[in-house]
Design a protein that fits this description.
Chains A, B: This is CSC1-like protein. Chains A, B: One of its GO terms (cellular component) is plasma membrane. Chains A, B: The chain crosses the membrane at residues 6-27, 98-117, 144-165, 356-377, 397-425, 445-464, 545-577, 598-619, 625-644. Chains A, B: Residues 6-166 form the CSC1/OSCA1-like N-terminal transmembrane domain. 2 copies of one chain form a homodimer. The first copy, chain A, is mainly alpha-helical. The first copy, chain A, is 67% helix and 4% strand. The first copy, chain A, is built from 29 helices and 4 strands. Chain A has helices at residues 3-27, 34-37, 39-45, 64-71, 74-115, 145-180, 203-214, 228-260, 266-275, 277-292, 307-314, 338-341, 345-365, 367-377, 379-385, 396-404, 406-415, 418-429, 434-462, 476-486, 488-508, 510-522, 538-558, 562-583, 595-620, 624-647, 657-670, 673-683, 691-694; strands spanning 189-193, 219-226, 296-304, 326-329. The first copy, chain A, has a 4-stranded antiparallel beta sheet with strand order 2-3-1-4, with helices on both faces. Chain A starts with a helix and ends in a 5-residue tail after the last helix.
C-alpha cells in the first residue's frame, strides 16, 4: 500500500465520521430520540417530555454537544458516571497526553530519519510506499538508530511519569470514593457462602448461631439467599399473572359496568375481590413464606454493626474447613447478581476452570477469520490460488478498497460477536456482582483482542503459508522485530476503520436508534423499554481503548505515521465518551475504580513489549550497542511497575482499616448508625416484586 | 551401558553403604562421639556423659539403631522433631508406598513387555544392554502399549488417593499443632513494619498511639526492634570484651595473688572492680538505654490480648498507604530472624527481585558443569575430540567407572555448593523468620535441582553438540518423549550414587565427626561448640527426596529398572532420617507443616510431567488412541490438584478464626491469660546478652 491508499482510507473514514457526527447532532435534537440520546437525564429527572416545536434549528448540525462535553468538569463526570467512568476518561486523557509527546518526538525526529535512512531516489510522496516511512528503511549499523533509542527513552520515561501521577491521583480518588460512600450498606455487609448443611436446622438458624457465637458484639442480622432458579420463576410468573388478571379485571369492570352490569350482579363482585390489592398479596405471601423455607440455599448476607467488623469477618479463614463459611464483602444492593449467589460454593472452582478453557478455546478458534483477513492483504497469494479473480483485482480502486478497508471491516464484524460471548462466559463463572462480571468479561475481551488482533495478525502475517504460529521460542525479540514492522500498514488502516468507526457507532447508537424508531413509529408504543437501563459497556470500551494504546506504543518507533491517526482517535474518544457518560449511560453499579490497575498493567505490558521489539530491531540492524542500551530501560520499567504494584494496588483490593474505623467513629458520634441499621433491614431485595415477604431480615 | 555395568555400580554402592552403616553403628557407641550422634538427647537432658567402659561390644556393628528407628512411633517423632519432621517422614513414607505399587505393576507387567517388545534374539542377560528394558524396545503401533497406559492409570490414581489422605491427615495434624501450641507467644504477637517516621516522636510513641487509637480494646503492649547492624555489633563486642577482661582479670587475680600480691596492693583491687558483675553490667545498660532510643527502627512487635485480635490486626490493609503499617503474624521467639526485622520495608521488594535474578543466574550458569558431566556419558564424542584418551578408554573397567560412576560423583560435588548459596540468597531476601528462610531456600534448591539435574541433563543429552537448550516450543511432549528415555541409564546411576551415598553421608555426619575428632583429640577441648545447635537441613533434604520421587515417577514407565534402586533408597531414607530426627537434630523452630504443600505440588507436577511424557511416547510409537487416552488422566490430575488446593491449602496459610476464638475462650475461662501476658513481656529478646535492658516492653 502506498500513501495514496492510506489517504483514501483516511478520506473515507473522515467523511463517514463527519457525516455521523452531524447526523448525531441533528438526531439528538429530535424529541422522539430523547430516550436514545438522553437516557441518563430522563432516568435522573424523570422530566416531562417536551413536545418540541418544529423549528429550522432542529435540522441544522451544530457543534454544541462537543462544547458541552468538553466543558464538563471532573465533578460532573463523577456525579453522572461514578468513579469508573472517570477512571476510563483518565485513561483516554493519559493516552492523548502520551501520544502527543510520542507524536512530537516521532514525527519530527524519527520519521525524517526513517525517510532518509537509505540512500535512494525518493518518488513523488503520494505514490511513495509506506515502507519508506518505517524503521525498515534505516540501513544496517546506522548511527541514526541512537535517535530511535533516544525517542524510546523519552516515550518510556514520560509514560512512566504520567502513569505514576495518574495512579496516585486515582488512588486518592478511590480513597475519597470509599469515604464518600459512607452510607453505602455494602460496607456493613458480607456475603457468606458454603454454610454447612444440617438436617435438623435451617440455614438461617445455623448462620444466626454461628455469628452470635463468634461475632456476638458486632453481628446485627442476616438475610438468607433463596434458590432463584425455580422460586424466582414461580414468583415472577405469579406476579405477572396477578398483574394480568388485575388489568383485565379493571378493564372488564369498566366493561361490565357499562355493558353487562344490568345482566347479572355477580360478575363484577368476583372480579373486585381479585382486584382488591391487600388481600391477594397477603395470600401470595403466605404461600411464599412457607415455601421459601424449604428453598433456602447455603449462602447468606450478614450485616454487622460497624464497617470494620464487616471487613474483619470478610477476611481470612473462618473455619477449619476452607470450603465452609467462605466470606466476601458484599456488593452494593443494585450490584448483586442474585442468580449466582445460590450457586454452591464447591461448584465455583470447576466453573472457573471450565470458562477459562472455553475462553482459551474461543481465542484459538478465532484464528480462522483472522487468517482469512490476512490473506486479503497478500493479494498475490490469492491471485495465485484463485486465478479467476485476477481480472477484478486489476482495477486499482478495488485493490485499494480490498487492501485498505475490507480486511479491517471483516475483522470488526467478527469481533462484534466476542464481547457477548465473553460476557456469557463471565456469567457462567459465577461472580457475585454485576460489576465483577463486567470486570471479568473486560479481562477476557482484553486478552482476546491483544492476542487475536495483534499477535495472530503479526505472526500469521509472516507465516501465512505455514500454520505453525510460534515456531521457535528462542530470540522472541528478533522474531517480533522482523514480524511486527511488516504489519504496520494493516494496523494503520485498523485504527482508521475500527477505531474511528467504533466512535461513530458509539455516538450514533444505531441499534438503540432503530429500536426506538421501530417502537415509536411502527408499533406506536410510547413506553421506552430501555429507558434508563443502559450501563456503560466497560467490557468492550476499556479493551478497545487499551488495544489502541497498545498499537500506538508498539508502532510509535517502527512506523510513526500511525500516531496522527491514533491522536485523532483519542481526542475524538475523549469527546464522544464524555458526551455519552454525561447523557446516555446510567450508573447503577460500579467497581469503584478497579479498572485502573488493569489499564496500568496493560500499558506497562505495551511499553515493555515495545522495548523488547525495539531491542530486537536494533539487533537486526546490527547495532548491538544500541540494542544493549534498551536493556536497562526494560529493567527500569519492570521495577517501576513492581513499585506501583506495591505502593498503590493493595488499595484497589482491600479497604484500609484505618479509614473504616475513622468512618465508623464519625458515624457513631453523629448518631447516624441507627438510621443505617434500619436501612440495612430492607435494602437487599432478592425478589423485587415481593419485597415485603422475602426481605425481612432475621434479627 | 549394560546390565553388568549397572550391577558394578550397584555393587560399589551397596558395599559402601554397608561399610558406612556398620561404621556408624560402631562410632555411635563411642562416648567421645556422643555430641555428634546424640546431639538432641544431650540438648534435651543435659545428661552427664558416661565415661564408657572399654568393652568388646563397643566395636561390633549391630543393627540396634535400625530397630530403634523403626519402632519409634509418630508421637515420639512429633515430640523430638516437631510437625515439620513428621511431615518430612510422611513424604518419605508416601514415596515408599507409591513406588512399591509402581514397582509391582512395572516390574511384573511393564518390564516383560519392554523386554519382549521387539522380535529379536536376546543375549545372555548380564551383557544385555539396558536399552532393552526400556520402552524404546517396544515396537511401533504395538497393542502392548495399552498395558503401559493401564499402568500409568494405576500409578496416577493410587498416587492421587494416597496424596489425598496424606494431605487430609497432615491438615488435621496442623490444626492439632495450632491448638496444641496454645501457650505460644507468637499467636498473640504481630510484626509491624513500615512505621511512619516523624521528627517529633519516637517510633515507640507512634506505635503506642496508633494501636491505642485503633485497637484500644485488644492492644496489650509493644516492643520496638532496634537497628542490629551497628548496635548488635557494639553490644556483642562489648560483651566479648567484658567476658575477656573478666577472664583475664580472674586469671590475673589468681596470678597477682600468687606472684605480684606482695609488690603492690592496687592492682588486684582495680581488676576486682571490673570483675564484680552487677556494677559493670549496670554501667553497660546505662550506655545501652540512652543509645538505643536513637537506634530504633521502623519495625515493632505488637502484643495483643487475644489470638483472634492478633490475627485480625495482621490481616488486610491497615493504612491508606500500603507501604506503611505493614503487618504480619510474628514468628516464634526462637524463630525470629532479628537481623532482617530492621530492614526498611520499602527495600524488601528490591531485595526479592534481586535474589530472584541471582538464583536464576546461578541456575543458568550451572549448565556448564552439567554439560561436562554429560560429555562423560558420550565417550565416543570425547574420543573423537581427544584422541590421546583412546588408549585409556579401551580398558573396560575404566569405561565402566567413567560411565557408571564418575558423572554422578562430579555432579554431586558441584551440587554441594548449591544449598549454601541458596541459603545466602534467602537470607538477603529478608525473611522475618529462620523457618521462613529455610522454606524459601528449600524452594530455590528444589527448582534448581529439578531444572539442573533433570531438564538440563535430559535436554543437553539430546543436544550435546548444539548449545541451544530448548530449540522448539511446539510439541514439548514429543521432544521430551524422545529425550527422556535416553537418559534412563544416567538417572539409574544417579539414584545409586547420589541417593545412597547421600544417606551414608547423612548418617555418618563426616564433617561433624571430623570437627569433633579435631576438637577432642587435637585441641583437647571438651567444650562442644556445635552441641545442640544443629537443626534439620530441610532445605537440602526435602528437595533431594522430592527429586528422587520426581525421577521415580518419570522413569517408572519408561525404564522400570530404576524402581528397585529407588525403593531401596526410600526404605533406607525412612530409617536413616527417623534415626537422625530422634537422635541428632534439635528442633528450635518450625514452620508447622508448611513444607507439605510444596511436597504435594511437586508430586503433582511429577505426575503430570510423567503423563505428558507418556503421551508423547505413545504418540511417537504411532499409537494415537493410547496417546489420546492419557489426556483425560492429565485433566483429572490437574482437577484433583485444584480441589486439594482449595480444600486444604488455606489452612497452611492462615489460622482459622473459629479455632482461635475457641482457644481464646478456653484460656479466658481457665484464667491462663494473665500468665501468658506476663510471659509476653519478656519472651522476645532481640539482644540475648543484654536481655534486661532491651526486652522491657512498653505497656
Amino acid at each position: 500500500m502506498d500513501i495514496s491508499g492510506l489517504l483514501t482510507s483516511a478520506g473515507i473514514n473522515t467523511g463517514l465520521c463527519l457525516v455521523f457526527f452531524s447526523l448525531y447532532s441533528v438526531l439528538s435534537k429530535q424529541p422522539s430520540n430523547e430516550s436514545v440520546y438522553f437516557g441518563q437525564r430522563l432516568a435522573q429527572l424523570r422530566l416531562k417530555r417536551r413536545r418540541g416545536r418544529l423549528s429550522f434549528d432542529r435540522f441544522v448540525p451544530s457543534p454544541s454537544w462537543i462544547v458541552k462535553a468538553w466543558e464538563a468538569s471532573e465533578e460532573e463526570i463523577l456525579a453522572c458516571g461514578g468513579l469508573d467512568a472517570l477512571v476510563f476518561l483518565r485513561m483516554v486523557v493519559f493516552s492523548c497526553r502520551i501520544f502527543s509527546i510520542a507524536a512530537i518526538i516521532c514525527i519530527f525526529l524519527v520519521l525524517p530519519l526513517n525517510y532518509f535512512g537509505k540512500e535512494m531516489r525518493h518518488r513523488y510522496i503520494p505514490s511513495e510506499s509506506l515502507e519508506v516511512f518505517t524503521i525498515g528503511n534505516v540501513k544496517e549499523g546506522s548511527r541514526w538508530l541512537w535517535a530511535h533509542c533516544f525517542a524510546l527513552y523519552i516515550i518510556s520515561c514520560s509514560a512512566c511519569v504520567l502513569l505514576y501521577f495518574e495512579y496516585k491521583n486515582i488512588t486518592r480518588m478511590r480513597l475519597a470514593h470509599i469515604i464518600g460512600s459512607s452510607l453505602s450498606p455494602s460496607q456493613f455487609t458480607i456475603l457468606v457462602r458454603g454454610i454447612p448443611w444440617s438436617p435438623e436446622e435451617s440455614y438461617s438458624e445455623i448462620v444466626r448461631k454461628f455469628y452470635t457465637n463468634y461475632y456476638a458484639t458486632s453481628y446485627l442480622s442476616h438475610q438468607i439467599v433463596y434458590r432463584s432458579g425455580t422460586v424466582q420463576k414461580i414468583m415472577s410468573d405469579a406476579a405477572k399473572m396477578y398483574e394480568m388478571i388485575k388489568c383485565t379485571s379493571t378493564e372488564q369492570n369498566f366493561g361490565s359496568r357499562l355493558i353487562r352490569c344490568g345482566l347479572c350482579g355477580g360478575t363484577t363482585h368476583s372480579f373486585k375481590v381479585l382486584a382488591s390489592e391487600p388481600e391477594s398479596v397477603q395470600r401470595q405471601n403466605d404461600f411464599t413464606e412457607s415455601d421459601l423455607k424449604e428453598k433456602e440455599c447455603g449462602a447468606a448476607l450478614v450485616f454487622f454493626r460497624t464497617r470494620y467488623a464487616a471487613v474483619i469477618a470478610s477476611q481470612g479463614l473462618q473455619s477449619s474447613n476452607p470450603m465452609l463459611w467462605v466470606t466476601d464483602l458484599a456488593p452494593e444492593p443494585h450490584d448483586v447478581y442474585w442468580k449466582n449467589l445460590s450457586i454452591p460454593y464447591r461448584q465455583l472452582w470447576i466453573r472457573r476452570i471450565t470458562t477459562l478453557l472455553a475462553s482459551i478455546g474461543l481465542m484459538i478458534l478465532f484464528v480462522i477469520p483472522v487468517g482469512f483477513v490476512q490473506s486479503l492483504l497478500h493479494l498475490e497469494e490469492i491471485q495465485k490460488k484463485f486465478p479467476f479473480l485476477r481480472g477484478v483485482l486489476k482495477n486499482k480502486v478495488i485493490v485499494r478498497v480490498v487492501t485498505g478497508y475490507l480486511p479491517s471491516v471483516i475483522l470488526m464484524l467478527f469481533l462484534y460477536a466476542v464481547p457477548p460471548a465473553m460476557m456469557l462466559f463471565s456469567t457462567i463463572e459465577g461472580p457475585i456482582s454485576r460489576s465483577g462480571r463486567k470486570k471479568s468479561a473486560c479481562f477476557k475481551v482484553l486478552y482476546f483482542l491483544i492476542w487475536n488482533v495483534f499477535f495472530v495478525n503479526v505472526l500469521s502475517g509472516t507465516a501465512i503459508e505455514r500454520l505453525v504460529v510460534v515456531s521457535s521460542a528462542k530470540d522472541v525479540a528478533a522474531q517480533l522485530a522482523t514480524a511486527v514492522p511488516k504489519q504496520a500498514t494493516f494496523f494503520m488502516t485498523y485504527v482508521l476503520t475500527s477505531g474511528w468507526a467504533s466512535l461513530s457507532s458509539e455516538i450514533m447508537q444505531p441499534y438503540m436508534l432503530l429500536c426506538n424508531f421501530f417502537n415509536k413509529f411502527i408499533l406506536r408504543n410510547n413506553n421506552d423499554p430501555s429507558n434508563g437501563t443502559l450501563s456503560f459497556p466497560y467490557h468492550t470500551e476499556v479493551p478497545r481503548v487499551l488495544l489502541f494504546g497498545f498499537l500506538g506504543f508498539t508502532y510509535s518507533l517502527l512506523a510513526p505515521l500511525i500516531l496522527p491517526f491514533l491522536l485523532v482517535y483519542f481526542f475524538l474518544a475523549n469527546l464522544v465518551y464524555r458526551n455519552q457518560i454525561l447523557n446516555i449511560y446510567v450508573t447503577r453499579y460500579q467497581t469503584g475504580g478497579k479498572f485502573w490497575p488493569t489499564m496500568h498493567y496493560t500499558t506497562i505490558f505495551s511499553l515493555v513489549l515495545t522495548q523488547v521489539i525495539a531491542m530486537g530491531v536494533f539487533g537486526l540492524k546490527k547495532s548491538t550497542v544500541v540494542s544493549a542500551f534498551t536493556v536497562p530501560l526494560i529493567i527500569c520499567t519492570l521495577l517501576f511497575n513492581e513499585y506501583c504494584r506495591r505502593r498503590f494496588h493493595p488499595i484497589f483490593k482491600d479497604n484500609p482499616a484505618q479509614v473504616l474505623i475513622d468512618m465508623d467513629r464519625n458515624d457513631e458520634q453523629c448518631g447516624r448508625m441507627e438510621e443505617i441499621y434500619k436501612q440495612l433491614q430492607s435494602v437487599y431485595c432478592q425478589f423485587a416484586s415481593t419485597s415485603n415477604a422475602v426481605c425481612n431480615t432475621v434479627p
